[in-house]
Request: fold
Amino acid sequence: MKSKTATLRSQVRRATPDDPTPWALLLAADGPRAEIRKYLSRGELWLAEAAGQVVGQMVLLETRVGTWEIMNIAVSDELRGHGVGTALLRKAKAVAIEHGAHLLEVGTGNSSLRELAFYQRFGFRITGVDTDFFVRRAGGGRLQKQNGIVLRDMVRMRIELASQP
Ligand SMILES: CC(C)(COP(=O)(O)OP(=O)(O)OC[C@H]1O[C@@H](n2cnc3c(N)ncnc32)[C@H](O)[C@@H]1OP(=O)(O)O)[C@@H](O)C(=O)NCCC(=O)NCCS
Reply:
C-alpha cells in the first residue's frame, strides 16, 4: 500500500511557442506519436512546472460545442503521487469553465486501474465504454498490458461543470 506523500508545489501555465514539445511526457500517456500530433495541433498544451522544470503536461481540446476533453495528461515518472496530476485536473476544470463549457471529459484504458481511481477521486463519473478502441487503434498490432490486463477498451468519463460549485 502506498503511503501519503508530500504535495509538490507546482504552477500550471499554458505552453508558449518557445516551449519545447514535451514528447517524453506526451508518450507516457498515449501513442503513437502520429495520434498525439493530431490533437496537439488543434488543442491547448498546458505545462506544470516545479522549481523551474517542466514536471507535467496536459492537452485540452474542445471536442464538441460546450465539451472540453483532456486528451493527454502525464507527470514525470519520479514525481508521481505528489499532487501534480491533481493540480493539472484542477486547471483543466477551470479552463473548461472559463470557456463556458458544461462538460469536461477524459478517456482512459480499461487496464489503467490507478488512473481510473485518480479521475474518480477528482469527481469524474464513468459514462460509457468504447469497446475495442485500443484494438482498432493497434490495427492488428500487438496489444499492451497493464496490471496483467490487456488494454482493449476506452472508459469514457466526465464531469458536469454546471453542477460543480
Ligand atoms: C495519472 C497521472 C497523470 C497522475 O498524476 P500524479 O501527479 O501522480 O497525480 P496525483 O499525485 O495528483 O494523484 C495521485 C493519486 O492518483 C493515483 N495514481 C494514479 N496513477 C498513478 C501513478 N501512475 N503513480 C502514482 N499514483 C497514481 C494514486 O493512487 C494517488 O493517490 P494518492 O492521492 O492517495 O497518493 C500520473 O500518474 C501519470 O503521469 N501517469 C502516466 C501517464 C498516464 O497514464 N496518463 C493518463 C492516461 S489516461
